[in-house]
Amino acid sequence: MPTASRPRRFAADRAARWGALALVVRPLYIGTEILVAAATIGGYDFLADTVSRLGEIGCSPDFCSPRHAWMNGSFVVFGVLLTGSAVWLARRLGPWAAGLLVIAGLSSIATGLTPQDQAGVAHAIAATPLFIAQPAALLVLAARVRGDHPHLSRLLFATGAITAAAAVGFVLAGEGDAGLLERLALWPVVIALSAFGVAELRSGPWTRWPTP
């Protein structure tokens, strides 16, 4: 039995390592936003304008996002990375955090498939779970890793609390601060989960076991 279980053990660890790597690279999403915004015509304000505006397909005399496909594609790609990492790291994340991150990842994918100016209602419905599931996942994960990684736990808890408050503020805010609050609800999550991924890469079983 130990011999039979060893390959499965290595396979599970390999999947978890890929999940951790997927979290580590997700901050590249922020760079995608910046690159897409740099190509807009008519001006784009990170403090006032929402992320979804970068994914608008149509153009008007006042605004156009020529790289809208990059933005919508990034919603899908980074959503796939989040969903995959949650599945591959399910044992380390725990069922609640993993489930919430799967929901968040699927929400991101659906958001990219429903551009705001083409399907406004569907876009709003698709994006909403992301703003709920991500902060909740961070808070749950903070409690889970508190014993093994106290500093990381505090980072995850603080990020979860801040992003939850920012998400509420984004819903209630007027147009003036919408972009700032939306990014405050999204960007820190990407960074905090990347930190979790780094911690997993440093402390995972693959750091102790030889590769078969």
Write a brief caption for the model.
This protein is mainly α. The chain has 8 helices and no strands.
Present the secondary structure layout.
Blueprint: H1 2-25, H2 28-38, H3 68-88, H4 90-93, H5 95-113, H6 120-144, H7 150-172, H8 178-203
Helix pairs in contact: 1-3, 1-8, 2-3, 3-5, 5-6, 6-7, 6-8, 7-8
Calculate the mean pLDDT score and round it: 91
State the major sheet. Answer: none
Overall tally of domains:
1
Parts with pLDDT < 50 across at least 5 consecutive residues: 206-212
InterPro entries: DUF998 (IPR009339)
Transmembrane segments: 21-44, 70-89, 96-114, 120-143, 155-173, 185-201
Keywords: Membrane, Transmembrane, Transmembrane helix
What report would you give on this structure?
The two termini are 17 Å apart. The protein has 212 residues and is mainly alpha-helical. Helix 3 packs antiparallel against helix 5. The protein has eight helices and no strands. The C terminus is likely disordered. The chain has one domain. Keywords: Membrane, Transmembrane, Transmembrane helix.
Task: Please supply descriptive tags for the structure shown above.
212 residues, mainly alpha, globular
